[in-house]
Amino acid sequence: MADLLPAPYTYAQVGATASALPRGYTHLRRTRVLHDVEFDAAVERLMTWQVHERAGLRVAVSSARATPGTVVEMRLGPSRLGVTFPCRVVYVVSEPARAGFAYGTLPGHPEAGEELFTVGRGDDGTVAFTIAAFSNPATPLARAAGPVGRWLQARMTTRYLSAMQ
User: Is residue 10 part of a domain?
Assistant: First the structure.
C-alpha cells in the first residue's frame, strides 16, 4: 500500500465531484433515504469504511478514517481471482448537515474516475445517502466488459446504498 501513497491519479479532473461532473465520462448519481438511521451514526459508518466492508469488499486503508490522502485498497472476490480497486481520498466534506468524502482511482483500478459518498440531513430531519461518480474504463478488460462493466458498477453502488441501511 505504501507504493500507492505517491501514485498519480489515473484521471485529470481530480476533485470534480465537488461540482458539476465532467463531460466525457459515464456519470452515476443515486440517493437513498435512510430510515431509522441517525445522521451521526451514518456518518461514522461511512467515514470508517464500514459501508464498503458491509458491501462485501475487503478493505485495507492507510488511515482508519477517511481523510484527504488516505489510500484505500478494496478487493472483491477470491484472493487470486478477485479484482483490486486502489483509490485515494481526494477531499472530505464536513458540514453541519452534510458529511462524506470523495476518492479517486489510482493505477491498477479497472476504471478511471472519482466517486463521492455523502450523508445529508434535511431540514425535516430526513437522512439520505448519496453517491455520485464519473468514470471510464481504464484497462483492456474493463473496456471489453462494456455494458456488463457498467452493470457491475451500478450493482456495487446498490450494495453501498444497502450497506448503509
Answer: no
Q: Which residues pair with 120 in a beta bridge?
A: 98, 128
Q: CA 134, CA 25: separation in Å to the nearest integer?
A: 6
Tens of pLDDT, residues 78-93: 777 778 899 999 999 9
| pTM to 2 decimal places | 0.95
Q: Which of 136, 127, 79, 61 is nearest to 100 (CA)?
A: 127
Q: Is the dihedral of CA 35, 96, 132, 135 positive or negative?
A: negative
Closest CA to 117 of 26, 34, 52: 52
Which element (helix H / strand E) includes 37? none
Here the CATH number for the domain that contains residue 151 is 3.30.530.20
Q: Residue count of the chain, please give it.
A: 165
Q: Which domain holds residue 32?
A: 24-164
